[in-house]
Structures are given as C-alpha cells and as structure tokens.
Amino acid sequence: MRTKLGQLITRNWVIKLVALSLSLMLYLAVSAQQPTSQILTLKLNVEMPPGRTLTSKLPTVAVQISGRGSELLKLRAFPPVIRRPVPDTLAGSVWLVRLQPSDVQIPKGVDVRVDDIVPRDVELRLSAVQRKEVRIVPRISVVAESGYVLHGGLSVTPAIAQLIGPEDRLARIDSVSTVSVQLSGVTGPFTRTVPLDTSVLGVVRVVPKDVEIAGNVGALIERSFAGILVETGAGGFTSFEVSPVRVAVAVRGPEELVAGLARDSFRVVAHLPGAAIVGAYAHLTVVGPPGVIARAVPDSVVLRRRPPRSPPATPRAPRRG
Q1: Structural domain tally of the chain?
Q2: Threshold 0.90, pTM exceeds
Q3: Contact status, residue 132 vs residue 162, Cβ threshold 8 Å
C-alpha cells in the first residue's frame, strides 16, 4: 500500500512540479493585482532657509498607503518622502507643522494612494532670528525721449522692506536697494516690477522680493513771462536802482506743470557779487515752483545812482485883500 502511494506521488513528478510552480505564480500574480494597504514609517525632511538651523529632532511619521500589491512592491526600491520647507517669513523659534496626505511625495510611475498620516501636527524648534524694517532705495535710471522729462521723481511700493536674520547681521543693514535697471523710450505714466538686490544680504532674507516702481515722463514745453519786477531788498542797493527794473522769465518743464503757471508764480531777486558802485552788475536769481527750470532774461541788471528826491513844495500863504 505504501509502495503504491509512493509511486503515485513520484509518478510524472516533473509535470506535477511544473503545475505546482504555475499555480504558485498564478496565485502571486492574482494577489499582486488585489487592492491592499500597508503602513510605512517615514522621516520628515525639513528644508531650512539660509542662516537657520533645526534645534529639535526630526520626528518619524506613519503613513498608510493603499494600492495594488504590485504597486506597493515598487515602494521598496523607491520609498516616498515627506518634505516641507520652512517659510522665509518665519521669524519665531517654534514652527507648528500640520501635515496632510498631499505632503507625501510618491515616486513617479507608482500608482498608490495616501490614506492617512500620523501624527498630523508636528512641532519643530529652530534657531532664533530677528526682524528689522528698512527703507527701499530704487536704483532706476530713466532715459527719456527727446522733448520729454521725468518729473515728480519715482515712487516705490512698498517703500519699506522687512529683513529676517541673525541680530548681528541685521545691525549692519540700514537699507536695501533694487537691482540696477535702466528704462528707455518711456513716455507718459509708467509702472515696472523690479526685484530687490539680495546679493549682498547673505543669510538675511527680505520680504517682499520685488517692488513696483512708478513715475511719469511728460512732454517738455517752454514759456516766457514778461514784465516781472526785479526785487533788490535792502543792503547794498539802498542808494542805487537797477536797470532794467522789470525782466522776462523763460521757463522750461513738463507740460502739465508749465501750463498752469502765471507771472506771480515767480520772483526775480538781484544779488551783488561785489561792492555796490555805479555801473556794477547784479546777477538775477529766479525763485519758482519745483519741477521746472526758470531763468531771467537778461540774467543781470546794472546799478545806477538813485536820483535825489525833490524836497516837498512849501505851501504859499494866502494873500490878504
């Protein structure tokens, strides 16, 4: 009986071994296509800004992943990672991270789903930094077209930047500037977004990264205002008068400024460079509104002796009849 049982087992054993192998392979193939899940233990990777260090240990995170068995097997060669960058704007020494399943980076070509992550809230401690507010200096040159000029200066928005970094580094910085930019062929109002120059900041971070520069390039016009009285005041002019007494003022500037000017927008003041003598010349200075160029025509006047005043006439006594 035992002999027959042994012969039954060993008969055609090669065929039976192949059949067993095929069955096992079929079972594994079917199992690999069945959905399943597993828990992976991953380490949180934190990307630190320049100049900051992590003072606490990085925690491990349990991640539940589901998918076909064949896809889960791929994770053995290419495990997923959890990577979170520390915000540049963070100045505190404690960073509370709230993890989401979307934070788990699955390798490309692996079709799995992240179902859960534990713990969700992670507290990390970082080296301390300070904040400091500084002004922003624009390094912008405007090359206007012929017949145009920049007026009113440039505006910077925002005008203040916030620096974040070690206290000793911040103490050396009083301002930040934009990168050097030249604007040409500009007419009329304009705005440009210009990045800040961070090349000299080292580990110090700045917020914002760029600013908006605005200005106005207007057309130039010229006007002339005649008959403006020359002011001499007191001093060396006491015994003298100037000739001519009235002069013209030639004005050049942006159209919208020059168009609104009038004669009373200017004062012409005489200045003596030397002693006050007959025939000496006094230079003229024009005082006018900002943003325009004004000059007197002529640009100097000559001194003349002031004629003596005639004595007042003596009233006649009435005749008696």
Answers
A1: 3
A2: no
A3: yes
In a domain, 81, yes or no: yes
Tokens of 159: 């005008």
The CA distance from 107 to 40, in Å, is: 14
Confidence (pLDDT) at 301: 93
Q: Are residues 149 and 74 in the same domain?
A: no
Half-sphere exposure in the Cβ direction for 47 (13 Å, CA): 7
Q: Same domain, yes or no, for 215 and 134? A: yes
Do residues 112 and 72 lie in contact, with contact meaning Cβ atoms separated by under 8 Å?
yes
Contact 176, 201 (CB under 8 A): yes
pLDDT at 29 over 90: no
Sequence-distant contacts of 25-29: CB under 8 A, at least 24 apart: none
Q: Are residues 185 and 265 in the same domain?
A: no
Strand partners, 295: 250
Residue found under tokens 């597993």: 38
* pLDDT class of 249 with cuts at 50, 70, 90: very high
Domain assignment of residue 268, given as a range: 221-305
| Calpha distance 80→3 (Å, rounded) | 57
In a domain, 150, yes or no: yes
Rounded CA separation 231/194 (Å): 48
Supply the pLDDT for residue 288: 93
Tokens of 128: 């301390």
Q: How far apart are CA 50 and CA 45, in angstroms?
A: 16
Contact predicate 99/81, CB 8 Å: no
One domain for residues 110 and 137: no
Question: Do 318 and 295 touch, CB atoms closer than 8 A?
Answer: no
> Cβ of 90: how many Cβ atoms within 10 Å?
15
Q: Per the omega criterion (within 30 degrees of 0), is the bond before 273 cis?
A: no
267 is written with which tokens? 């004062």
- Burial bucket for residue 221 (CB in 10 Å: 0-12, 13-18, 19+): middle
* 3-class state of residue 21 by DSSP: helix
Higher confidence at residue 68 or residue 180? 180
Establish if 314 belongs to a structural domain. no
